[in-house]
Amino acid sequence: MTGRDDGDGDPRDEAEGAGAEARVRLPDESPFAAVAPTRPRQVDLARAGLLLTVVEALNVLVGFASTVYFAWALGASALGVFFLFDAVLNTVTTVTDFGLRDAVEKRISEGEAGDATLTAAVCLKLALLAPFVLLAYPLHPYVDAYVGAPLTLPLVAGVLVYEFGVLTLHVLRAELRVEETALLSFARLAVYVLVAVALVQFDYGVRALVYAFVASYAVLLAVGALRVSTGVARPGRAQFRSLVRYAKYNGVSALGGYVYNSMDLLVVGYFLTPAFVAAYELAWRVTAMLLLVANVVSNTVFAQLSAWHARDELDRVRATLADAVTASLVLVIPAFVGIALLSRELLGVLFGPAFTVAAAAFVVLAGEKLVTAVNVVLDAGVRAFDRPQAGAYATVGSATLNVALNVVLVPRYGLLGAASATAAAVCLHGVVLAVALSRLTPLAVDARDIGWCVGAALGMGGVIALARAFVDAGTLGGLAALVALGGVVYLALVLASARLRAKARGVVASLA
């Protein structure tokens, strides 16, 4: 339910990152003797991607079920308080990280001195966190008043465990041990759900979700720190400069992600009631689930693309980017069609009538995810080419547009205005990223496969529209039947393509 997981992982060898060369000194050799390097470690992208998708699907199912439960158990107003707490925490963690996590992943994956790089990152992160910790107490009356409950102290604890817990996931990805991070993220979600459900039973109200959030990231930090193979070493100026050089641009890009995820919610919270906050955030989080495959693809390929770029294997980079775009859209295309047909029923039946006020915004947010699914792949590409400034430029323009449109549209159009502001900004962001990446490498998409998926989704939509004449979508059983029918029809139509069947067989074969 928290929607804040980073996702996948993989333990670490002493050879640091892709492209690192393990050198062995034999007993009778001079220390300057030449030794052949081992083959650089490499991610099996198909295998890792499918395994991550399975685990992330479990994450989505558990997270979605818990969201439904908490919506009914706590109600819209209490849930809105937690969502505002989460939005404030997201604001703080975005500023206090400012691109460092991605910088660590990038530099270690390139084969830089991993121990010194990680130590430098921890030092920088502590320096960025210190002002927040020192200012939290004097500012707590304002924070508590905005959120709607006295939650500043758990906010401080949440920021600390979140920042360092998620950092361990980025280090594991940099070590090209991608699958492990998904397992760690699922364990964190399981802890969150179990603790929250238990505390709800003891009438902790919204504090149940807050305390569970903090506990789950504390577990992630403890287990992640044990799994990371990169150690600590005294960093030099080179490590600090390298991290700052990358992070200063990547941090701006991360700020854009924050703007998309939280700025509209913060504006809604300022102009409207917590009940509207809860309805909008639930619509957002349901559509965010549509990015399951896109996020897995991005997290799986980034470190490998970075390693290939460092070795000047650009043909492999281009081919992988094209396949990644197709994979990222496979789930989002049919989901958009389904939400366009069933938005009110999905919100009302699953979460309650109070949440149907976000029905129109729900459709717009689902459409926005079509663009976001491509954007996450483009962003991974520009970062792998060591051009985080491209993402920064895209972010500055799109984030500025998003903030301006939110302030103008939310007071007049409510939740639909917030969703429209985000959609417009995401489109601008995608255009800038595409132009920037096309200057680094020729871009191509598999129009035939994507077109087939679009046709399959439209066919699915036609079947659902006809079935609604015989099935009541306003009941849980009827809604479930329509969703299941749509899924079966879409899968059958997709697999009717010989090309897509062959790709699916290839992915499954990679697991053998």
Automatic annotation (TrEMBL):
Keyword field: Cell membrane, Membrane, Transmembrane, Transmembrane helix
Name of protein: Membrane protein involved in the export of O-antigen and teichoic acid
Region named Disordered: 1-23
UniProt feature coiled coil, ranges: none
Chief site of localization: membrane
Subcellular location: Cell membrane
Cellular component GO terms held in the UniProt record: plasma membrane
Statement: the UniProt record of this protein carries the keyword Cell membrane: yes
Recorded topology in the membrane: Multi-pass membrane protein
Segments passing through the bilayer: 49-72, 78-98, 118-139, 151-171, 183-202, 208-228, 249-272, 284-308, 320-342, 354-378, 390-409, 415-438, 450-470, 476-496
Biased composition (Basic and acidic residues): 1-15
Pfam families: Polysacc_synt_3 (PF13440)
Highest taxon of source: Archaea
